[in-house]
Amino acid sequence: MSSNKKYWKSVEELSDNSSIVETLKNNEFAEPIPVDEFLGNGEALSSSPTSRRDFLKFVGFSTAAASLAACEGPVHKSIPYVVQPEQIIPGVWNMYATSYFDGFDFANLLVKSREGRPIKIENNTIEGARFAANARVHASILSMYDSSRLKQPLVAGKPASWDDANAAVKKGLADAKAKGGQVVLLTGTIASPTTQKLINEFAAANGARHIQYDAVSSSAAVDAFEAVHGERGLVDYDFSKSDLIVSVGADFLGDWQGGGFDSGYTKGRIPANGKMSRHFQFESNMTLSGASADKRVPMTPTQQKQALVLIYNVVAGGSAPVSLDAKFTAEVTKAAQQLKSAGSRGVLVTGLDDKNAQLLALGINQALASQAYVGAPIRYVRKGSDAQMTAFLSDLTSGKVGALIMSGVNPAYTLPDGKAFADAVKALPFSATFTLRDDETAKVSKVALAAPHFLETWGDLELTKGTYSLTQPLIRPLFNTKQFEEALLSWAGSPSTYYDYLRANAANHLVGKSWNQAVHDGVCAHEAPGVGAGSLDAASAAAALSQAKATGDFELVLYTKTGLGDGQQANNPWLQEFPDPISRVSWDNYVTISKFDADKIGMENKIVANGGLNGSYANITVGGKKLDNVPVIVQPGQAHGTLGLSVGYGRKASMQEEMQVGVNAYPLYIGFNSVQSAKITNAGGEHEFACVQSQKTLMGRGDIIKETTLEVFNKENAEVWNPMPMVSLDHQETPVTKVDLWESFDQTTGHHFNLSIDLNACTGCGACVIACHAENNVPVVGKSEVRRSRDMHWLRIDRYYSSEETFAKDDEKKENFDGLWGDKGSLGGFGEMEEPADNPQVAFQPVMCQHCNHAPCETVCPVAATSHSRQGHNHMAYNRCVGTRYCANNCPYKVRRFNWFLYNHNEEFPYNMNDDLGRMVLNPDVNVRSRGVMEKCSFCIQSTQAVILNAKRAGRPVAKGEFNDACACSAACSTGAMTFGDVNDKEDAIVELKNNERMYHLLEHVGTQPNVFYHVKVRNT
Predict the structure, then answer these.
(1) Distances in Å between the alpha carbon of 577 and those of 585, 661, 681, 780, 783?
(2) CB-based contacts of 778: which residues, under 8 Å, 6+ apart?
(3) What digits encode the pLDDT tens for the residues 854-872?
(4) Quick count: other Cβ atoms within 10 Å of Cβ 805?
(5) Per-residue model confidence as pLDDT tens digits over 472-518
(6) Closest C-alpha among 906, 957, 901 to residue 932
(7) Per 3-state DSSP, what percentage of the chain is helix, strand, and coil (rounded to 5)?
(8) 713, HSE (Cβ side, Cα atoms, 13 Å)
(9) What angle do CA 796, 840, 895 make, to 5 degrees?
(10) C-alpha pair distances (Å), 130 with each of 190, 236, 467
(11) Residue 626 bridge partners (DSSP)
(12) Strands (DSSP E) along 917-987, which ranges?
């Protein structure tokens, strides 16, 4: 099998008649750059002959002007320390361990701090630290420096002191108890044992009821686990122990049950000793898990329920009736039989919001005695109960609640009927909410209590049974805020601080570590019982689930996007500009629909003259609720008869105007069920997307992504599945590595850096993109500029769909006249060309500056702003750059970024760099680039040089993994897809990776000799 498949980024590329697509293949921008604006009076220039000498005068003038502008830097006065803190050395960063949990995301972290200012989040890799940061956790540091945070308490909507706020709360509680009204404490999931203890004491003293509520519910799974195992938790599946993985509607590489499963998953996905795990995915929306699957079957949620019953029948010998057509029955039976054969080395997971479905999943894993399930740790990251929340809402609207105190939730926004909740809260005698922002719930509460960011607080977490994590503050609170726990102590009349209370309670959880050691490490782990034997009536669950039937025209599947999650950080510009891994759209949410269904309704996506993507609008109706003018994305892989729509958008309260984007999908989250029966109609009009899928494209190049099957990988030599490009030398076919137009130089002295990217391990999660953003002061440019192909990300993750197995098959189909006019009529051939849009294979490929040893950019720079180093870096001297953009034109990888504008201190770009508080996140080790210069990936040279200097100062060699942890993208990668290191150090892991048979370079035939290399993707089909 050839590894040279045809890849495409959008459905439009399957059309032979798109001039825009052809233009984008050959040009960075679809429209000519308006050079007249740079050369003065355009009309005068066009009406008079201009000689070469005149042209050079204009260019010389513009160059001089750019150089002069570059010298006009602002002057800031510095104030020295009077007494320098002992722990702080100016210019040297400190690392502190902490932990993160916001009710949705969680991680064990290290936080980089400069002169007492946290600037960067890293992964804590100490033993016992189980969870790495995703893109949202990496971006959370910017949310601390959000100037629109709530800065002090509000009483009746007006600023107040904490004494006044506390007095109002105490009076509200006393009045509620005097009148016999219920006192309710509504929080998100509490994963902190100390906070839970404090809440229990508060509830007992005040006769209060504590209810935990998750905006995106996992109640069905938690209820099923509790029914089987007796406690509210979830299974922390270890996918590294599985040879066969079957997922029915569970995006476990995304946000399913909190995420964090990607590390274990990818351990089995790297072909080793001729083996790798196999992955079946049955789903409606195209997800990260579906994109990584070996076999993906698009199905409606109703069909998924039937598929789950069929799998149970095959694996556990059940006899529940199943209603599936022959095509799906064959696919599901095949997966079920392989799952049964895998036995304890198999695992099944499901994301269906149905208790019976979750019980079946547990029953199937028990029948398999799955190693990924039996004995697995128990997660405590989702505890919300739909039943308790529904009962509370009933009491609230019926007037039974006398006082309501909330923390970590925003029900006025996230509840399906947020308006009814808001009206009920307004009518309450007393309500208070702890919040980071003056959000939708704060605006209807009697008292809004300003909460601190997690980097300003003390706390603890028990994310899984047997692990105890600590949260420590890295900075004094920026505003007049108090912790929820501190307030509970104050309302109880306790003189104790929460730090003292926490430290006293922590003694019950620290096993073998002192308090100081636990704070230093950030986590304390000990042996604890995992998932044990449990009893359940799986047959009854299967019988109930088999009754599922679809109603309505479409089944709408609500989900969380990789960028915004549940919407807590919707005011974070890093996350708004982050392109979705699947659709490649930023600054929007949208309804996804299959091309088959879109054609029937008359909806489309099209690439317009400026290279931007436009799409139709739709109206979506669920029950009696309607969302108008929802943008439409025609999504390859979307199951017929289904729609996808992400929550977390459409927020208005306390949001910067530029971040008020998208539509709020929570009103359609009826009954806390992610699947709804829906109708969709064409609303007319055209929406402009900020979509990067067709920008900076490498389309048309045959060796962008190389892939093969496990069978071919095992049976054939590497020359078959990883062929070396050949060129003609003296009329002889010669490997491209043997031919060189450049004079080589010695690379064996000192350090020489390479970056390895394994396409089998990359899930497209985007953590590396945000980590690079944070480390290198990458500016946010906004939706309008992204649409103009001007996004500034130094690292992008290209997403490719593949059509036919090889280019040759595509060409054969196009050229074969009979293929176009065969049995299927005139649309036979071209119609079949579009069939992959129903269920394409997907590949992710991170692309950054390739740091070519023979770099085309260096050849053409007229001022030597870009040059090469012995260590393998392709340097950029910003002060030398005059913005000719020759280097960008000559770069075959399209990885260089041009600063069209000054993004710092510019009101036209009202994001963190235009805000005094937001600029606190900037890394002082990296220049903030000015208008008119090129920038791109630097291999985080500031960090690698710090590693070298630290080792030199300590008189030791660089330790194992130090260089990998210094590079932002590789340090952030939790799957091991990215590895950074020194190829001149024979003990470095990068050496073995470079010598691996799967290694290849991007566009190797160009002869640029990059210092970034990739590993061929292998599919276990």
Answers:
(1) 9, 11, 29, 7, 7
(2) 772, 792, 793, 794
(3) 999 999 999 999 999 989 8
(4) 16
(5) 999 999 999 999 999 999 998 888 899 999 999 999 898 888 999 99
(6) 901
(7) 35, 20, 45
(8) 23
(9) 15
(10) 18, 10, 9
(11) 621
(12) 934-935, 978-982
- The 10 Å Cβ neighbour count of residue 636 is 24
- The residue-averaged pLDDT of 49-70 equals 45
Q: The tokens of 653 are what? A: 């309260």
Provide the pLDDT for residue 63.
Answer: 44
pTM summary value: 0.90
Rounded Cα distance, 907 and 920, in Å: 17
Can you tell me the distance from the alpha carbon of 97 to that of 108, in angstroms, rounded to the nearest whole number?
8
Question: 1014 phi and psi, to 5 degrees?
Answer: -120, 165
pLDDT, tens digit (0-9, with 9 covering 90-100), for 539-592: 899 999 988 887 878 999 999 999 999 999 999 999 999 999 999 999 999 999
Buried b (16+ CB within 10 A) or exposed e, 322-349: bebeeebeebbbebbebbbebebbbbbb
Which region among 206-215, 363-372, 782-791 has the lowest average model confidence (pLDDT)? 782-791
Q: What are phi and psi of 364, to 5 degrees?
A: -65, -45
In angstroms, the CA 778 to CA 45 distance is: 36
Alpha helices in 450-527 (DSSP H): 484-491, 498-506, 515-521
Helix and strand numbers (H, E) in the chain are 34, 42
DSSP string covering 639-658: PTTEEEEEES----TT--GG
Amino acid at 502: L
CB contact at 8 A, 100 and 471:
yes
Question: Which amino acid, 358?
Answer: Q
Structure tokens, 956: 């030791």
For residue 182, give both structure tokens.
């219920």
